[in-house]
Structure formats: C-alpha cells, structure tokens
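Journal club prep, notes for RB
We'll compare a predicted complex against what the paper describes. Inputs for the zinc ion case:
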Amino acid sequence: MIGRIDHVGIAVKNLEEAIRVWEGLGLKVEEIEEVPDQKVRTAVIHVGESRIELLEGTSEDSPISKFIAKRGEGIHHIALGVDNIEEHLRKLKEAGYRLIDEKPRVGAGGAKIAFVHPKSVTGVLLELCEREE
Ligand code: ZN
C-alpha cells in the first residue's frame, strides 16, 4: 500500500544557506544527517505527515552535485511512503518499470529506500520509502 508522500527531496548547493531560506518560510529543520552511501548531507523538515529533505552533495561525484551541475538547484525526487518495499519493487519490475535499485538500501533516518528511473515515471525520479514507525 502507498500511504502518503513521505518526502520531497530538494537538491541544494549549500545546506546551511538552504536551511536559512526554508526556516525563513516559518518551517523548522529537525535533523541534519550525513548519508555516506549516497554522498549527501540532508536536513529534514517535518511538514504535517510529510517532510522536505534538503540535500547537499558531499563530493563532486555525488548524484546531487551532478544533478545541480546539470540542472541547477531544485526538486530532485519525490518519495512515496510504502509498507512493504520489497513487494512494491517486485511488482513494479514485473510491470516493466525501470528500477535504479532492485533491492532497498538504507537512507536518511534508517529508512529502507529504492529509486525508480525517471524515464519510466514521466520524468520524475521516484523514491519508495519504508519507515519503521
Ligand atoms: Zn529521498
């Protein structure tokens, strides 16, 4: 089951600068975390049931740094919260969606995450995200 939009990932050049901008809107950053596996630092903003994740690349070859070099700052991906990520990945693969991750990996906050290629989702980089809550 797909429960909600878990978060929207936003690629930023400078995390501290981005935090200032987003907190200026009246929101509050609750966690800052480095995810070495994805070469990013994230700042998480809770908005009701959903979140905004600000993402800063920690090296030139980080997917976020590459995205910004190509397209500038902006919305990087949308994450749907799911209850059984392995099952979802299996179904999507069967249905012909192009998976970037065939198996889930560990993302910010210890969630299980997997990406689906934008070429098979109307140009949107889609993340599936399963949290233990
Ligand atoms: Zn994400």
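Talking point for the session: The mean pLDDT is 95.
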